[in-house]
């Protein structure tokens, strides 16, 4: 029997630090599940001062929890095996990892097509879109056709479930900045593709970031209208380089309107705003709201403005339903929950 399901997902363009939050919360659950995406994702976690990078394996592996890669995911078998090899070598129990028989397999042809034809969209070149395209054309290859049976998930979930999203609201195939999106459902409702009722969902934790970044090209990304040399220092301080591609990310001050829109659209029960330490280090506290650049004297004032605006400032938003949101703030390598 499922006790309840909680969901972590990103409120921006990815790279908010969802992996870190999931990793901290994972201890409280029986299962940690991925419902979307594939090796395009990159989660960096620090455990005991050591840095680990995962792309497809759920962060539950670090907490010794059962890890499920759901039917909505796409898998590069070689890359998954390599990730498992490294994790196993570091002492983590890789037998906890199970893959849905219906997850789709990325082929060399998918990768080739992606690298040849989709670079103008700024993809990660992992064959994601071609793999999902074949899934929709119903000519794709599924995990059950290629994986040994001991890796296959029996479809059961029980106890306390944590679902961790990959990519984020503005990369969602239906709601994101199309066509500069990924090819899966990054919205929290996508987690239901794992096979549970929406009624089982409890906490829906939206993870945002105190400044905006986008990995890969995107003419729709709200790049700064205000030329600001601080932003280039922000790339350095925040280590804003793609964890899958190594590319330098686009950066901008937080667009609070966009964050509120993401919150309303996706319907979270709480918000965590991450990477506050990066602005502290920079010593500049700016955001844009209602087309104005607002500068604060210190972090405290900025946080207060963000929390108040998110909690109370959504009156005019048809999607808000008068919801009140709990907002917490965290730094890159620690979290306050
Ligand atoms: P694709 O998912 O490789 O097709 O890439 C499509 C878009 O999503 C590109 O702009 C990528 O940079 C972006 N993207 C995909 N996965 C991630 C992620 O995990 N973090 C941040 N951006 C991502
Ligand atoms: Mg990431």
Explain how this protein is built.
- There is one protein chain.
- The protein is an alpha/beta fold.
- It has helices at 18-25, 77-89, 108-117, 128-137, 143-146, 230-237, 256-266, 276-282, 299-312; strands at residues 2-10, 31-34, 43-47, 50-54, 66-69, 74-75, 97-99, 104-105, 159-168, 201-209, 211-214, 250-255, 270-274, 285-289, 292-296, 326-329.
- Strand 3 (43-47) and strand 4 form a beta hairpin.
- Helix 6 (230-237) packs across helix 8.
- The two termini are 27 Å apart.
- The structure holds inosinic acid and magnesium ion (MG).
Order of helices and strands: EHEEEEEHEEHHHEEEHEHEHEEHE
Shape: globular
Output the structural class: alpha/beta
Helical segment count: 9
Uncertain segments: none
Give me the count of strands.
16
Percent of residues in helices comes to 25-40%
Bound molecules: inosinic acid, magnesium ion
Strand line-up in the sheet with most strands: 7-5-2-9-1-10-13-16
Distance between the termini: 27 Å
Mean pLDDT across the residues is 91
Give Rg in angstroms: 19 Å
Strand content: 15-25%
Ordered list of secondary-structure elements with their pairings:
Elements: E1 2-10, H1 18-25, E2 31-34, E3 43-47, E4 50-54, E5 66-69, E6 74-75, H2 77-89, E7 97-99, E8 104-105, H3 108-117, H4 128-137, H5 143-146, E9 159-168, E10 201-209, E11 211-214, H6 230-237, E12 250-255, H7 256-266, E13 270-274, H8 276-282, E14 285-289, E15 292-296, H9 299-312, E16 326-329
Parallel strand pairs: 1-9, 1-10, 2-5, 2-9, 5-7, 6-8, 10-13, 12-14, 13-16
Antiparallel strand pairs: 3-4, 11-12, 14-15
Helix pairs in contact: 3-4, 6-8
Inosinic acid is lined by residues 14-15, 40-42, 122-124, 126, 128-129, 166-167, 171, 180, 182-183, 215-216.
